């Protein structure tokens, strides 16, 4: 990838720049909890985005995307937003950096990536954090790592229409090889957990389906949670987010909120607790409990939060039949992949079975990615 980027950069701009990279992410457990102030448990992966960048002394950004085979040029003012959705991520990062006092000027850049798009591994966070990190470095902005993650999140909110939480960008900026990170999204306290499950593998099974309107459905889930939290807050003013609520308190407002909002909130309150249970289990190397909680999450995401789909439910059932320790839909949902905790000795038969049964039913094979937990945003030598 680096060679291809270098070649293209030389062809387009006739010189060399500096290299930066960042990563996509997995999440062991804690889904749709981040924007509810709850816990998440992600890690960066060995698939990401790489970019070569050099300041160009103008006020224009000149970007070439190798994967889209497309060149875009834009200015740095609010009205200069490009129409290409991939370019809006970079434009958004520039704008959000400027809003935080960063003195950004024009630059030339070529980038490429190997995070599968739409698989739920957050290729967009990888892209945002690559540029947030790089611009901070190249323009000497002195923005701290939390704020770099927030630059990516605000880019999604303000330039891409997704009211996401902080998990993806946080994992992409703070990722550390061999470690998962438990993040409290309310206080932003985090802790690295070395993750080397003896005798198990983590593997992603990608359904390669991406359902339309995923971002508007995502935003609707968030609105449901905010309505439920607001109703509970009337009785319990300490409830800032759903994460602060107890099941009994949700029960109290059952007749005040819609049945749908109730189900969404029920899932979130349970999911926040599951992350803590998984952390305890990990400290005892109790992977059976970790796996059981993953299945519970899948059930909740499918039946209560309703962000699964036929293909993902099928993969989840299949994992259960094959004796896989834990399995669930990963990321925002509405397509993408399942994350599976599989005993080493079951790995080959599970993957073979998943490929065969899935393609018999849906007409194409799922893609398989072994999880390698890696570093997040960084400058390359
Ligand atoms: C997407 C969002 C995250 C998070 C997950 C669900 O990846 O970007 O903020 O909400 O969905 O856990």
Task: Please explain how this structure is put together.
The protein is of the alpha+beta class and 381 residues long. The protein has two domains: 2-195 and 375-379, Ribosomal Protein S5, domain 2; 200-370, GHMP kinase, C-terminal domain (Alpha-Beta Plaits), CATH 3.30.70. The protein is 44% helix and 23% strand. The protein contains eleven helices and 13 strands. Strands 5-4-6-3-1-13 form a six-stranded mixed sheet, sandwiched between helices. The chain has a four-stranded antiparallel sheet with strand order 10-11-9-12. A three-stranded antiparallel sheet has the order 2-7-8, with helices on both faces. A hairpin with a 5-residue loop joins β10 and β11. α8 runs antiparallel to α9. The mean pLDDT is 96. Alpha-D-galactopyranose binds next to α5. Alpha-D-galactopyranose binds at residues 31-32, 34-35, 122, 164-165, 167-168, 331-332.
Shape designation: globular
CATH topology of the largest domain: Ribosomal Protein S5, domain 2
Taking pLDDT < 50 over at least 5 consecutive residues as the criterion, the unreliable ranges are none
**Level of helix content?**
40-55%
CATH hierarchy class name of the largest domain:
Alpha Beta
Mean pLDDT: 96
Please give the order of strands in the largest beta sheet. 5-4-6-3-1-13
Supply the helix-strand structural class: alpha+beta
Gap between N and C termini: 15 Å
Number of domains: 2
Order of helices and strands: HEEEEEHEHHHEEEHHHHHEEHEE
By CATH, the architecture of the largest domain is named 2-Layer Sandwich
């Amino acid at each position: 990838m680096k060679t291809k980027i270098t070649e293209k950069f030389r062809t387009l701009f006739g010189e060399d720049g500096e290299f930066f990279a960042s990563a996509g992410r997995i999440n062991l457990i804690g889904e749709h909890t981040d924007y509810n102030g709850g816990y998440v448990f992600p890690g960066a992966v060995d698939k990401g985005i790489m970019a070569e960048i050099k300041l160009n002394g103008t006020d224009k950004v000149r970007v070439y995307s190798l994967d889209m085979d497309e060149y875009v040029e834009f200015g740095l003012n609010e009205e200069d937003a490009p129409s290409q959705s991939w370019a809006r991520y970079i434009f958004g990062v520039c704008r959000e950096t400027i809003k935080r006092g960063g003195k950004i000027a024009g630059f030339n850049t070529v980038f490429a990536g190997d995070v599968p798009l739409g698989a739920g591994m957050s290729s967009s966070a990888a892209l945002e954090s690559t540029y947030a990190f790089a611009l901070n470095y190249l323009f000497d902005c002195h923005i701290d790592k939390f704020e770099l993650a927030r630059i990516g999140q605000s880019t999604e909110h303000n330039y891409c229409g997704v009211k996401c939480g902080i998990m993806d960008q946080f994992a992409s900026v703070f990722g550390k090889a061999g470690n998962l990170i438990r993040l409290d999204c309310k206080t932003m306290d985090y802790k690295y957990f070395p993750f080397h499950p003896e005798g198990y593998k983590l593997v992603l099974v990608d359904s390669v389906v991406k359902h339309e309107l995923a971002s508007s459905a995502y935003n609707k889930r968030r609105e449901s949670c905010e309505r439920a939290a607001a109703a509970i807050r009337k009785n319990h003013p300490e409830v800032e987010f759903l994460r602060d609520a107890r099941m009994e308190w949700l029960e109290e407002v059952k007749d005040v909120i819609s049945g749908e909002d109730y189900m969404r909130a029920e899932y979130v309150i349970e999911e926040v607790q599951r992350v803590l249970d998984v952390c305890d289990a990990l400290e005892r190397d109790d992977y059976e409990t970790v796996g059981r909680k993953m299945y519970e999450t899948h059930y909740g995401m499918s039946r209560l939060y309703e962000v699964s789909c036929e293909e993902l439910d099928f993969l989840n059932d299949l994992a259960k039949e094959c004796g896989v320790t834990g399995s669930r839909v990963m990321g925002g949902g509405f397509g993408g992949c399942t994350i599976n905790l599989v005993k080493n000795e079951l790995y080959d038969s599970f993957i073979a079975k998943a490929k065969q049964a899935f393609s018999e039913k849906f007409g194409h094979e799922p893609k398989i990615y072994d999880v390698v937990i890696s570093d997040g945003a960084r400058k390359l030598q």
